[in-house]
Design brief:
The longest helix has 24 residues. This protein starts with 11 loop residues before the first helix and ends in a 9-residue tail after the last helix. The protein has one domain. 0% of the residues are buried. Helix content is 54%, strand content 0%. By secondary structure, the protein is mostly helical.
């Protein structure tokens, strides 16, 4: 009964492989920016990797805003007790 089940992400070499796959896929998606014609409305949209950078910065802003918002609305564990 004390047998602990091990999962494939418990092995650090599998985590390294997963990160490598993520980096390769991300790199291929950014390199794909060379192979299509862009119909831009604003000049920054024509920059190489603009949408990748814009998406990363937007997601980072959302995560940081959530961190700040949590500190504003968070209540103690026993808020509804008593």
């Amino acid at each position: 009964m004390d047998e602990q089940k091990t999962y494939w992400l418990d092995d650090s070499s599998n985590m390294n492989k997963l990160c490598l796959v993520l980096y390769v896929i991300s790199g291929l998606l950014i390199l794909g920016d060379f192979f299509y014609h862009k119909h831009i409305h604003f000049s920054p949209e024509g920059w190489f990797g603009f949408y990748a950078l814009f998406g990363f910065l937007s997601y980072s802003f959302i995560v940081l805003a959530g961190w700040v918002w949590r500190s504003i609305v968070m209540r103690k564990e026993d808020y509804y007790d008593g």
